Amino acid sequence: MAKKALTKAQLVGHLAEKLGVNRATARSFLDELSTLVAKEVKKAGVFTLPGLGKFVLSKRKARMGRNPRTGEPIKIPAKTVLKFRIARALKSSVLPAKK
Asked: What is the rounded CA–CA span in Å between residue 49 and residue 60?
């Protein structure tokens, strides 16, 4: 059975303990980091977290799709999406090497 993901409160607690700061400081750090990521991605289109990966804005073209219920073709409009690309070092430390 898979373990549950860390909640924000658990992450804040872990950071506070490891860094020797109080929980409020750790929480404000996480909040400021997410605000900074959003601001920088809006401005530059990319934000890199060294050792973790990068957030990248990507434009998707308009395309034709199908309504799964009726099978009728529908037009899916173009849109901009936010993607996260995992750093190679993190990926190789988590996933086993390919044979």
From this structure: 24
Q: Per-domain residue ranges for the chain?
A: 7-43, 45-99
Read off the pLDDT of residues 7-65 as tens digits, 9 standing for 90 and up: 999 999 999 999 999 999 999 999 999 999 999 999 999 999 999 999 999 999 999 99
Tokens of 36: 């900074």
pTM above 0.70, yes or no: yes
What top-level class would CATH report for the domain 45-99?
Answer: few secondary structures
Place of tokens 């996260």: 84
* Residue type, position 12, single letter: V
User: Cα(44)–Cα(76) distance, rounded to whole angstroms?
Assistant: 26
Half-sphere exposure of 10 (CA within 13 A, CB side): 4
**Cβ-based neighbour number of residue 47 at 10 Å:** 20
DSSP states of 58-87 as a string?
EEEPPEEEE-TTT--EEEEPPEEEEEEEE-
